[in-house]
Amino acid sequence: MEIEAYHHTKNKFGQYFTPKVMADFMIEMANISEKSRILEPSCGEGVFLDLLRQKGFDNLTAFEIDHELAQEFDCVRYESFVSAKIDEKFDLIIGNPPYIRWKNLEDELKQELSANPIWNKYFNSLCDYLYIFILKSIELLNDNGQLIFICPEYWMNTTHSISLRNYMVQNGYFEEIYHFNETPIFDKVTVSIVIFKFVKSKESIEKIKVSKFYANQKLTTETLHNLKNQIPFKDAEFLSVSQFKVNQRWLLQSDIVRQELQILETNCLKKNQNTLLNLFDEDKQEFHTIGDFCDIGNGLVSGLDKAFQVNGHVLIENELNATINVVKAKDLKPFVIDNITKYIYINEGLKEESFKENYPNFYIHFQKYKSDLDKRYQYNRKINYWEWVLLRNFNLFKKEEKRIFVPCKERISNKDYFRFALVDEGVFPTQDVTAIFKKSNTKESIEYILAYLNNPVVFDWLKCNGIVKGNIVEFSEKPISSIPFRVIDWKNEKEVELHHLISEQTKNYLKSKDKFLLDLINQSFNKLFSITQ
């Protein structure tokens, strides 16, 4: 998750102050007595310290790098927690650590990390400042001490944080995790946020209590109470998740979904690998991917869609020939399209006089949009007002073969499917659509690929591994390319038979729209996934 989107110059220490309602909620998660030793590694304005004091906890220690903050507390040491020599151990470490990507760190902070033994042992320059706060905090906990932090979620499943994750798995367990997807907690911060409670211990418990909240609304005490007690309500989801394991990505998904994804990924592994070894080494694990078997391109950009839609004009022959069939994102469904729109498309290189003479109705039509069309982004060239601004991938779209369209962005908070649709040759995508074409040497049929992309397992995989911002999954070229693909072993009769069956079932569904066929297609895929590789 890109942090630079909300890292601005004023904020060189990565400070985002915690709302009181959240700090209160986090303190209530702790299981401590009034004598417990409590540390806050980056206390900011002191919201946690204030609440802890009010609740009768006074064995407090805090660190803050910014001398202007939290001056009314006598327990604050104004130095960097990262470098501080700390000789005591704590029962609770709580707070909101700073999060800044290495490349956005001030030079003084980079130098400090480069000289730090913990950083050098576990991390590198692809890591985030946050990681050392988590790891050093765990080192400073007593046995059965608790770490309760609020921070972005991305480190729970990125490759670069695997050393941190392995350290945590080897030194304790998670008791509770709260996941806030589109919830605005910090000003100007638009990433998913988690609150976690980690216990340092040689023992473990079997399950982690996970509560997720998806709504884009400010958090209230009532919402937090319901999440804490797992009282069902709109936009909330409650899971019981097995403890994380070494060398695995951490997915906040039910065990069933995690197993399903494991089966999918194992099915898509390239053959020449030692499967066991690869399951434990993310960097070496190589899947067959959609990008290996398909060409992918984002749609054409008009710069002002309404100006290019034909919309029932009377047209002369020249004009009829200067139109293309287009499908927009709103007209896509799983497997099929709802509607085709005719768009004006005139080859580039015409002078305005010739345009007016050859396409008189279009000329009149464009006049009312002319000033808006002239304001379009020009992509460093002179674009006439009747021309499209960006014809990227045009040659790909001109191929005389069927193609699969998918919306570039899909909101998933309210549905459990994506809309990969098969489209006839000669139909073009606009900029809100991405198109997928079979490569010429791909033996799998376009219907097989279509059915595969619409499979519920692929939906779950993308929900966990795709580019997801808030509740929006992005389908540009790169994320589609990276989807694991279940290739057919053409020497295996059973697999070939299932490929042909899925292709036929899909063709029949495209003709009849009979929902019963979708169940049959998914059953055929389940059989395919169960063939041991």
Ordered list of secondary-structure elements with their pairings:
Layout: H1 20-29, E1 38-40, H2 47-54, E2 60-63, E3 76-77, E4 90-95, H3 107-114, H4 117-122, H5 129-139, E5 141-152, H6 162-171, E6 172-180, E7 193-200, E8 207-213, H7 221-228, E9 236-242, H8 255-268, H9 275-279, H10 290-293, E10 294-298, H11 305-308, H12 317-321, E11 323-327, E12 341-344, H13 352-358, H14 360-367, H15 370-374, H16 394-397, E13 403-407, E14 409-411, E15 421-423, E16 427-429, E17 433-438, H17 446-453, H18 456-465, E18 467-469, E19 472-474, H19 477-481, H20 493-512, H21 516-529
Parallel strand pairs: 1-2, 1-4, 2-3, 4-5, 6-8, 11-16
Antiparallel strand pairs: 5-7, 6-7, 8-9, 10-17, 11-12, 13-15, 13-17, 14-19, 18-19
Outline the structure in words.
By secondary structure, the chain is α/β, with parallel strands linked by helices. The chain folds into two domains: 10-252, Vaccinia Virus protein VP39 (Rossmann fold, 3-Layer(aba) Sandwich); 291-487, DNA methylase specificity domains (Adenine-n6-DNA-methyltransferase TaqI, Chain A, domain 2). Helices cover 33% and strands 18% of the residues. It is built from 21 helices and 19 strands. The protein has helices at residues 20-29, 47-54, 107-114, 117-122, 129-139, 162-171, 221-228, 255-268, 275-279, 290-293, 305-308, 317-321, 352-358, 360-367, 370-374, 394-397, 446-453, 456-465, 477-481, 493-512, 516-529, and strands spanning 38-40, 60-63, 76-77, 90-95, 141-152, 172-180, 193-200, 207-213, 236-242, 294-298, 323-327, 341-344, 403-407, 409-411, 421-423, 427-429, 433-438, 467-469, 472-474. The strands form four sheets. Strands 3-2-1-4-5-7-6-8-9 form a nine-stranded mixed beta sheet, sandwiched between helices. Strands 10-17-13-15 form a four-stranded antiparallel beta sheet. Strand 18 (467-469) and strand 19 (472-474) form a beta hairpin. Helix 17 crosses helix 20 and helix 20 (493-512) runs antiparallel to helix 21. The model is unreliable at 1-14 and 275-284 (pLDDT under 50).
